[in-house]
Amino acid sequence: DANRSTTSPLAGLPSACHVLLDAKAKKGLTFEQISEQIGKPEVWTAALFYGQAKPDEETLQKLAQVLDIFPEVLQDGLGGSYVVHRGESWTWPPKDPVLYRLYEVLVVYGYSYKALIAEKFGDGIMSAIDFRTSVKRKADPKGDRVVITMDGKFLPYSLTGEGNAWSRESDA
Prior knowledge:
Blueprint: H1 15-27, H2 31-38, H3 42-49, H4 57-67, H5 71-78, H6 97-121, E1 124-138, E2 145-156
Antiparallel strand pairs: 1-2
Helix pairs in contact: 1-5, 2-3, 4-5
Keywords: Lyase
Family: Belongs to the MBF1 family.
Domain Cyanate lyase C-terminal: 88-158
């Protein structure tokens, strides 16, 4: 399969992810349709199919039912002791045009985002763990727009207190 060449980001996916992607294509379902049926966010669902999320047992059972896959196949490949290797399939900078545009957004606007976060919240970061994201289509007379929302919890840096990188106790 040309989609699984050794240079493709799909080449390094767990075999259960290939099973998910093949079943999705065979059923003709969108990530939105699947996410609604399993009760998970759409982007999280897509991330699971690309090996970037860890499902719980209930989600694996629902996926097996929705996609007509033997539950054992998903359990063996993505359940139990499966460890997610987030970001390992990336090449920097990305070569795929869509991924490169997203990278370009951070290159162009990254420091602006950082400055605005500091002005509005203080010294800290936006969590990518306590995080929600979505992709929507917005009609526009000049051409439809892609709306990507990033919604991460603000995590302040701390210069004082116990158990942080700046406390004397961390030197021990």
